[in-house]
Amino acid sequence: MDRYAVFGNPIGHSKSPLIHQMFAQQTGETLSYEAICAPLDGFAASVATFFSAGLGANVTVPFKEQAWELTVQRSERAEMAGAVNTLLLNEHGEICGDNTDGVGLVTDLVSNHHVQLQGKRVLVLGAGGAVRGILGPLLAQQPLQVVVANRTVEKAEALATLFAQQGAISACGFADITGEFDVIINGTAASLQGEMPPLPAGLVAAHTVCYDMMYSAEPTVFNQWAQSQGAARQIDGLGMLVEQAAEAFFVWRGKRPDTGPVLQQLRADL
Ligand code: ATR
């Protein structure tokens, strides 16, 4: 049977095996997909062992940057992201890297939630690996402006410089964000700790859409803030998770699964 896997540490709560099993069933593909907890100091060896028989893999925290380093060839989007979440074999049997996270976010926003990004003013909170992964696909939508705001301003500035050729992008600290935004995306790890970045007032208008790249059964702290500010909509990152998986499935199998029912099932199980 064609073998696929997701590598992470920890990996126990990964929803990827369930998602890919549902995709396979839906598209009539025969494959297996397992979760592998790689040792923190043994990711490369674990991947090498798997690929003696495996065809493809996803990579999650904390190995996405290491996955970028061990791949011999990478897609342009993985190159810009500086991280790899999808491993595949080329025609010579070598391990190559792709990154489907950014496309996952944009597909969820644009296709699932019908949020236009073209010509819009977009605020992105955070400047870590997760944010770097989404900036390329975000700028490809031709927003009017993307402002990257981060606790550590230098990291936001570095990202703005890196992506400057791809569109209108600027950087600042939280206290210096000004004006209203059409879309606000939270890519900080603050939600994980139940914290909210210290944002100034006046960023949210009545039409503003707020998107947290994190998800949970209850509204995230960021989405609670968005609601309290009077945002038009608050969306969490469960759809992004399913869409990045669908894009990886397409990379491996050449078939696009219907993500709607899968998302519905995951939401019901949260
Ligand atoms: P990830 O892969 O999730 O992006 P990361 O690369 O460690 O993880 O980046 C974490 C991001 O969340 C950073 O932008 C970080 O801000 P700093 O660059 O200043 O460290 C941000 N972050 C983490 N905890 C935060 C908090 N409590 N408030 C605001 N920002 C926070």
Please give a structural write-up.
This protein is an alpha/beta fold. The chain has two domains: about 130 residues, Leucine Dehydrogenase, chain A, domain 1 (Rossmann fold); about 140 residues, Rossmann fold (3-Layer(aba) Sandwich), CATH 3.40.50.720. Helices cover about 35% and strands about 20% of the residues. Strands 2-1-3-5-6-4 form a six-stranded mixed β-sheet, sandwiched between helices. A hairpin with a 5-residue loop joins strand 5 and strand 6. The longest helix has 16 residues. The radius of gyration is 18 Å and the shape is globular. About 45% of the residues are buried. The mean pLDDT is about 95. Bound molecules: 2'-monophosphoadenosine-5'-diphosphate. The site of 2'-monophosphoadenosine-5'-diphosphate has 16 residues, from helix 6.
